[in-house]
Amino acid sequence: MTVPDRSRDIPVQRHTIFQSSLMTALLDGIYDGELTIGELLGHGNFGIGTFDALDGEMIIVDGVCYQVRGDGSATVADLEQHSPFAVATNFVPRIVREAPPGMCRKELSEFISGILPSENYMYAVRITGMFESVRVRTVTKQQRPYRPMLEATGDDAELVFSHTAGIIAGFRTPIYEKGIGIPGCHVHFIDNARTHGGHVLDFTLSSGLIEVCPGTDLQLRLPLNHEFSTARLAPEDLDQQIHATEVKE
Ligand SMILES: [Zn+2]
């Protein structure tokens, strides 16, 4: 009796991606969470998210969680700080490619699509290299009563970093996860000195390495608080809200 070869049926190995709260909760102005950075780091050494009161962009690289503020400056976050939304995983670079030189975000996104075993899984994506330019925005600390994210991010300043070495980290989320996450690529940047970064709007890569970690299991943790329990999590204009707050083009 021969053992059937199932390797063609299973293009990726089991791998868990952890997520706290929902994109739709953030859009609805649920900016305070009960998950600490210490707990979050227990779920992964790599990730992105934001902090309570929408106080900056989060990027986790090599097990260190950084907080990037409105002026683009980055500092190491305290383990006791809280996050209302974050995605993390223990990054295993299962697919590794040299980036074609001089690629902009759109071209690189197509290149990454071409190396994925399937559109139907989740992927953690890490790009390490020299960037011709990186255009970012950063959310700024909000005051209660919180406004919906569409209003809160309306006046975010954009910054451009030129000729900088650094890391882009984030996730490529399938369309069917819309609302839970942000469909497509959602990535944050931090430079090699770990002093500047933000939520990436666009970039051009001079040279670098692309590493991809496929995810098969989503561990979703919903906040246990009054705000989340009464939030509007299925708005009719979800596509438009996601586009206006995250893509900004
Ligand atoms: Zn972001």
From TrEMBL:
<dbReference type="InterPro" id="IPR005128">
    <property type="entry name" value="Acetolactate_a_deCO2ase"/>
</dbReference>
<keyword id="KW-0456">Lyase</keyword>
<keyword id="KW-0005">Acetoin biosynthesis</keyword>
<protein>
    <recommendedName>
        <fullName>Alpha-acetolactate decarboxylase</fullName>
        <ecNumber>4.1.1.5</ecNumber>
    </recommendedName>
</protein>
<comment type="similarity">
    <text>Belongs to the alpha-acetolactate decarboxylase family.</text>
</comment>
<dbReference type="GO" id="GO:0045151">
    <property type="term" value="P:acetoin biosynthetic process"/>
</dbReference>
<comment type="pathway">
    <text>Polyol metabolism; (R,R)-butane-2,3-diol biosynthesis; (R,R)-butane-2,3-diol from pyruvate: step 2/3.</text>
</comment>
<dbReference type="GO" id="GO:0047605">
    <property type="term" value="F:acetolactate decarboxylase activity"/>
</dbReference>
<dbReference type="Pfam" id="PF03306">
    <property type="entry name" value="AAL_decarboxy"/>
</dbReference>
<keyword id="KW-0210">Decarboxylase</keyword>
